[in-house]
Amino acid sequence: MTVRVGRHVVGRTAAPDAPRPGRRALLALVVGGLSSGGNLLLAITVTRLESVGGLGQFALAFSFYIVGSGLVRSTVTDTVLATGVGVVASAARRAILLGVVAGTLISAAGAAYGSPYLLFAGLALPGLVLYDYTKAVAVGIGAPSAAMAQEIAWAALTGCAALAGLLRVIDVPYVFALWAVGGALLGLVVAARRRYALVPGWRVGRAETRVAAGFGAQFLLTTGSAQLALTAVALVAGTAVVGALSAGRTLLGPVNLVLSTAATLILPQLARTRAESRAVRTRTAVRLALLVAGAVLPLTIAVALLPDAVGKELLGANWTVARSLLVLLALESLLAVPATIGFAGLRVEQASRRAIVLGILLGGLRVPAVVAGAVLFGAPGAAGALVVLALVSAVAWGGSYLLLLRARVPERPPAVQPV
Fold it and tell me: 305: number of CA atoms within 13 Å, CB side?
């Protein structure tokens, strides 16, 4: 079965004009680099111009965007990437529906608490999740060059907004607004040109809905619990602690975006080995983990050893609060690699129940651990708790996938019987 996306055909097998795996991976890295650059420019601009408290509000708004787009990724996009089949155009309806629901809640929170960052994030969220959906499909099973064109346009718009903010032409919240609304409009334009369905809806069978709900719940219990922990820290310890964590994570933005880009490629790679033996599938998972870690490690080391002069130039006055957190936050990002591989493997195996159980256990630990660390030791305590939780998550997700392979997959594929 094949699905037409614009002028490119995607499905179980590559389209005749689809790029080879090596070229696709290279283009995916370029797309990830462009996305990393645009988001890093936005974060640096806000960090330089905002107070620590305002930076905390920005961090909450951006985190809600990550949660919204991640929810769409786990419930809608990953199904297309893992199986390579399905009606890609109609699946966009589900992405928009989730974006509308989540965006409405975030906008209401922004209006209630007087936060322009939350308000703008909520209003733009439906278009932003559609943007991420179109990009992920293009990178994973479509035409990566189309995703590259998207990122170039958004990066250019972000650059103009950042320049206007640095020149004091517009206030800092409007820099964020231009970034969010610009990305949302680009998502709508790209989806319309590819003739995706733009009316929100949810038209899939019960089986797929159950799987999507399971992995959506798992995502909310893990990344969602991280957002809940961030919100709890802001309420209990103040937005200044959240702002300090955000200042440190600003410099690690490229690392986290490399991880998200790698996830787009990991799913199809693991899915291609489903018919192989346990040994082959285990080696594939280990090789992917080493490959991603090899790409992430130099970036984390560079950030952890960043000179003071460079840090002050990038973060301004907020460099003082970020400097002491960099080593811990860099270690947290590095430990996310095996967890990413493990979660992708469970997604390919459609082990939603196992993922939910792990998510409940890890999510139940995250909120009290991070809040306790923030209350007792401030931002360094919260960062230390995040490292411990990242280590536990790496062991849990990676080990769970390997154990699942041992239980489900024979050591060698059965011999083919003659007809």
Answer: 6
